[in-house]
Design brief:
Pfam families: F-box, FBA_1
CATH class of the largest domain: Mainly Beta
CATH superfamily of the largest domain: Kelch-type beta propeller
Helix content: 10-25%
Shape: globular
CATH architecture of the largest domain: 6 Propeller
CATH topology of the largest domain: Neuraminidase
Largest sheet: 5 strands, antiparallel
Radius of gyration: 24 Å
Organism: Saponaria officinalis
Structural class: alpha+beta
InterPro entries: F-box-assoc_dom_typ1 (IPR006527), F-box-assoc_interact_dom (IPR017451), F-box-like_dom_sf (IPR036047), F-box_dom (IPR001810), SCF_F-box_component (IPR050796)
Protein name: F-box domain-containing protein
Strand order of the largest sheet: 8-9-10-11-27
Length: 466
């Protein structure tokens, strides 16, 4: 993956990164050259064997092999092959001794961010260490937020210009998304503060990639808060779809890592909402296939604490660091029940959980000294990664590569001509028409309904406008 990121870095990258590029290139070239397309008798290998061999190779080499012949170009571009490559290549990557990450950091203040590419040597004993890093100064667009990877794809968002895009850095593709749908509210001023969270996932039912945005507005003078709208983007249809409003205003936090598990994407509510005295502990989950939402209460963790969501034991996890006792806790959520997986400490430093990695390994940040830390459940200790480039870390996201294109041909999408010309108001009416009764999202929000429609589902979670 580190090759794919070279185009986004400064031309004169540091010497460590250059050596790393060369070493990796040599290893993968030797691996690639060991693949013989013809056997000793000169007979061509069976086509299925060639497909199997190619499906295990890095994206960098497959892009080059597209030039071998038209048949290979068609094969590597085929959606079935892209899916096969996703399964095989990611399975083979488990034994890699190097791992790449995107690090989102505060640049000048809390509202300005920049990305770094960070390379971690995972075979270093007794703890991994950062062997190279570089600022991503040549990104295809300015980025203040990033989410992913989902099959090698990332959602990019620039807050100040409200530019949104899907990005596959491995094949150097960027798709700028259409403007986000907005809903007018007479009680709001266009200058009112807006807040949003976002998620990226794959709909396994329709084989579609989706972006979900939960957006809300509030007036800082009157303290009026509009119900948060939920808008979903479909890559297949290349459009946003308004789903409804949440019942109340959830002060959701932007995730510091990619929290997608079993088709559900999760966000956590901040400790303080409204008057910043009322405590609230809730997690909101969104199902990418069914558009269903769920609300989960947090466990009885030790407070006050620095906390974030993550993945642990292939389950949704709460990572918390107790500020008074300096204890680190990990809770997992399975079959509707929270269970504490570990509690370790006390530690001398205060560590902020910021992300997860494979085999239950976790990333943390020193809250005082801004060191990047690494937690290994086997040693049950937090190690300093000796990374000197850290400012205030706002997230860590693994680098994944794939052949998945974000520039799909949408001509075959299942949308009628009448749907394409409806505009914002038309899209809203589609979601709220009487015939459109199966939303799959009654658990957390609802469409606009008339007074005659009195059956609301779960009233304690959702509102209905009459």
């Amino acid at each position: 993956m580190v090759y794919s990121l070279q185009r986004y870095m400064e031309p004169d990258v540091n010497s460590k990164l250059i050596r790393l590029f060369k070493d990796r290139s040599k290893k993968e070239r030797e691996r690639s050259m060991g693949i013989e397309i013809a056997n000793a008798n000169g007979n061509c290998l069976d086509e299925c064997v060639i497909v199997e061999i190619l499906s295990w190779l890095p994206v960098k080499w497959l892009l080059q092999y597209k030039s071998v012949c038209k048949a290979w170009h068609a094969l590597i571009s085929n959606l079935d092959f892209v899916s096969k490559h996703l399964r095989n290549y990611y399975r083979n990557r488990n034994d890699s001794d190097m791992c790449d990450f995107f690090l989102k950091q505060s640049y000048v203040d809390y509202d300005l961010y920049h990305l770094q590419s960070l390379v971690l040597a995972v075979d270093e004993m007794p703890t991994p260490r950062v062997v190279a890093f570089e600022d991503m100064v040549s990104m295809p667009m300015y980025v203040s937020e990033i989410c992913g990877p989902c099959d090698g794809l990332y959602y990019l968002f620039y807050y100040y210009d409200t530019i949104r895009a899907l990005w596959n850095p491995a094949i150097n593709e960027l798709r700028v998304l259409p403007p986000l749908l907005t809903k007018s509210d007479p009680l709001l001023d266009p200058r009112d503060t807006a807040g949003e969270v976002y998620g990226l996932g794959f709909d396994s039912v329709t084989s579609d990639y989706k972006v979900v945005v939960i957006k809300g507005y509030f007036n800082t003078v009157t303290d009026y808060r509009a119900p948060q709208s939920v808008i979903v983007y479909s890559l297949r249809n290349d459009c946003w779809r308004y789903c409804g409003d949440l019942r109340r205003y959830y002060k959701l936090e932007t995730n510091k890592c990619y929290n997608l598990i079993n088709g559900w994407y999760y966000w956590m509510e901040s400790d303080y909402i409204y008057d910043y005295n009322k405590m609230s502990d809730a997690i909101i989950g969104f199902n990418m296939a069914t558009d269903e939402f769920e609300e989960i209460n947090l466990p009885d963790y030790k407070k006050p604490a620095l906390k974030s969501l993550g993945i642990y034991d292939n389950s949704l996890a709460l990572l918390s660091f107790h500020l008074d006792d300096k204890l680190f806790e990990v809770w997992t959520f399975k079959v509707g029940i929270w269970a504490m997986k570990l509690r370790i400490g006390p530690f001398l430093d205060v560590w902020f959980p910021i992300g997860h990695w494979k085999d239950n390994k976790l990333f943390l940040e020193s809250y005082v000294w801004l060191h990047l830390g690494f937690f290994d459940p086997e040693s049950q200790d937090i190690k300093n990664l000796s990374y000197e480039g850290l400012k205030r870390c706002r997230g860590v996201f693994a680098c994944g590569e794939s052949l998945v294109s974000v520039k799909r041909d949408n001509s075959a999408s299942e949308t009628s001509d009448s749907d394409s010309d409806l505009g914002i108001n038309g899209l809203f009416s589609i979601e709220t028409s009487e015939s459109d009764s199966e939303y799959g999202i009654h658990d957390l929000f609802c469409p606009e309904t008339s007074e005659s429609e009195s059956k609301y589902g779960i009233e304690d979670l959702f509102c209905h406008e009459g």
